[in-house]
From TrEMBL:
<feature type="transmembrane region" description="Helical">
    <location>
        <begin position="44"/>
        <end position="62"/>
    </location>
</feature>
<feature type="domain" description="ABC transmembrane type-1">
    <location>
        <begin position="1"/>
        <end position="187"/>
    </location>
</feature>
<keyword id="KW-0067">ATP-binding</keyword>
<keyword id="KW-0472">Membrane</keyword>
<protein>
    <submittedName>
        <fullName>ABC transporter ATP-binding protein</fullName>
    </submittedName>
</protein>
<dbReference type="InterPro" id="IPR011527">
    <property type="entry name" value="ABC1_TM_dom"/>
</dbReference>
<dbReference type="InterPro" id="IPR036640">
    <property type="entry name" value="ABC1_TM_sf"/>
</dbReference>
<dbReference type="GO" id="GO:0005524">
    <property type="term" value="F:ATP binding"/>
</dbReference>
<dbReference type="Pfam" id="PF00005">
    <property type="entry name" value="ABC_tran"/>
</dbReference>
<dbReference type="InterPro" id="IPR003439">
    <property type="entry name" value="ABC_transporter-like_ATP-bd"/>
</dbReference>
<dbReference type="InterPro" id="IPR003593">
    <property type="entry name" value="AAA+_ATPase"/>
</dbReference>
<feature type="transmembrane region" description="Helical">
    <location>
        <begin position="131"/>
        <end position="150"/>
    </location>
</feature>
<keyword id="KW-0812">Transmembrane</keyword>
<keyword id="KW-0547">Nucleotide-binding</keyword>
<dbReference type="InterPro" id="IPR039421">
    <property type="entry name" value="Type_1_exporter"/>
</dbReference>
<dbReference type="InterPro" id="IPR027417">
    <property type="entry name" value="P-loop_NTPase"/>
</dbReference>
<feature type="domain" description="ABC transporter">
    <location>
        <begin position="217"/>
        <end position="447"/>
    </location>
</feature>
Length: 452
């Protein structure tokens, strides 16, 4: 995506903006000069015109190869951009495992591949232009030979031949320029296709129904697959207003998918998800995502202040801001930071601990007063005492809380625990009941959960 935005679009725009006026002006010049040559000698003009198709033949002959090399060069360029991005974003991991040399060599390899592909592409373009130049060099010899024959026959004068020869070179310049731009446009076709792929991506569709308050959510016989791999298979689940539920299951059981579907990051393959008895596709996406907010384990923090990361440009009163930071217990650590809420968190929040980043993400969600707050491993980096305080604060807000976690201390705070297995609800109840009646829950507790 970065390569297409930073490289493909400027290249395509530059080629197009130069080619269209260049081709238009030179076509006009070609028509004028052709008229002059016909006026001087139609016989010699036919000789010149007979060589022009070779320009088109040479371009069409090499066209397929040119597109292939152009596409390869763009793909290698994208690989370089991706390598640079990964190296920057993974700096800490690279340092931690002393893999600087490994990634330097990998990036060198990407760059060398790109250089090779770029050189092949440029060399091929130059070869086409050299071939066209060769054709242009042969034509004057043919014109002089045939023109001399016409002079001897008395069909034209020597002055006409000299004049024709002088004007003849003028017609080849617009032909050369048009050919050059045509080759350039052929090279941009793969670039255009790469840009077009982005424009043709399926866009999110929003319903028109307004959503004032989420009273209940129901998954009714929901099926969903990723790349033909089934994740949810006939899921049925009801979530009531102001309920606090936890969703547990083995890796791959579909816990996070349940959340992604209610947020309409994806649409279900079969079945339906209802909010207040209506399909979620009928609701405005803006309303849906305003009333149902997800906080993930590693929610993105922008390189801005803590205050700006919470507000994100929206207007909230100081009281609303204060309440949100108290619910998320940010006030417990804010005095440790030099500039308080104006402290810049760094790129992706690198100047803060995982727990501090998670508390900021929770405050960012709470200040928007959602009806449903989904915590997807959102307290994994927070100590148990602070976590307990946050959940107590959330309980006072009278909102529905959905918890996805691998921490027993977190799950036990739920009123109802949902156990997922292979995309279905196999058990539900409180912690004590599930320990007695659900073998899968016992297996999950014993094998996966961190008892805190």
């Amino acid at each position: 995506m970065i390569a297409r935005v930073s490289s493909d679009i400027p290249n395509f725009s530059e080629s197009l903006s130069a080619a269209i006026p260049g081709i238009s002006l030179n076509i006009m010049a070609l028509i004028i000069f052709s008229g002059v040559l016909i006026y001087l000698s139609w016989q010699l003009a036919l000789v010149v015109f007979a060589t022009l198709p070779f320009y088109n033949i040479s371009i069409n002959t090499f066209n397929k190869k040119l597109k292939k090399l152009s596409k390869l060069e763009r793909e290698k360029n994208s690989k370089v951009m991706e390598g640079i991005r990964e190296s920057i974003e993974g700096t800490l991991t690279i340092k931690r495992f002393n893999k600087s040399n490994y990634f330097i060599e990998a990036l060198k390899s990407y760059i060398n591949d790109w250089i090779k592909a770029s050189n092949k592409h440029n060399l091929f373009i130059q070869s086409i232009e050299d071939f066209i130049t060769f054709i242009r060099g042969i034509c004057p010899i043919i014109v002089l030979s045939f023109g001399g024959y016409l002079v001897m026959k008395g069909d034209i004068t020597l002055g006409t031949l000299i004049g024709f020869y002088s004007f003849m070179n003028w017609i080849y310049e617009p032909v050369r320029v048009i050919s050059h731009f045509f080759i350039s446009l052929q090279s941009t076709i793969p670039v255009f296709k790469r840009i077009k792929e982005i424009h043709e991506m399926e866009e999110e569709t929003s319903g028109l129904e307004l959503l004032n308050k989420v009273k209940n959510i129901e998954y009714r016989n929901v099926y969903f697959s990723y790349d033909s791999i089934p994740i949810l298979e006939g899921l049925n689940l009801k979530i009531r207003s102001n309920e606090r539920i936890a969703i547990v299951g083995e890796s791959g059981s579909g816990k996070t998918t349940v959340i992604k579907l209610v947020m309409r990051y994806f649409n279900v393959d079969k079945g339906n998800i209802l909010v207040n008895g209506k399909s979620i596709v009928e609701y405005s996406l803006h309303d849906l995502r305003r009333k149902i907010i997800v906080v993930h384990q590693n929610d993105f923090l922008f390189n801005m202040s803590i205050r700006e990361n919470i507000l994100l440009g929206e207007k909230f009163s100081e009281k609303e801001f204060t309440n949100a930071i108290k619910v998320a217990c940010i006030d417990k650590f804010i005095n440790e930071l030099g500039k308080g809420y104006d402290t810049i968190v760094g790129e992706r929040g690198t100047r803060l601990s995982d727990g501090q980043k998670q508390r900021i993400a929770i405050a960012r969600a709470v200040i928007r007063k959602p009806d449903v707050l989904i915590l997807d491993e959102a307290t994994s980096g927070i100590d148990s005492q602070t976590e307990a305080e946050i959940f107590k604060n959330l309980q006072n807000l009278n909102i529905t809380v959905i918890i996805i976690s691998h921490r027993l201390s977190t799950i036990k705070k739920a009123d109802r625990i949902i156990v997922l297995h292979k995309g279905r609800v196999i058990c539900e109840g409180n912690h004590e009941n599930l320990l007695k009646n659900c073998r899968k829950y016992n297996d999950i507790i014993r094998n996966q959960l961190i008892v805190v």
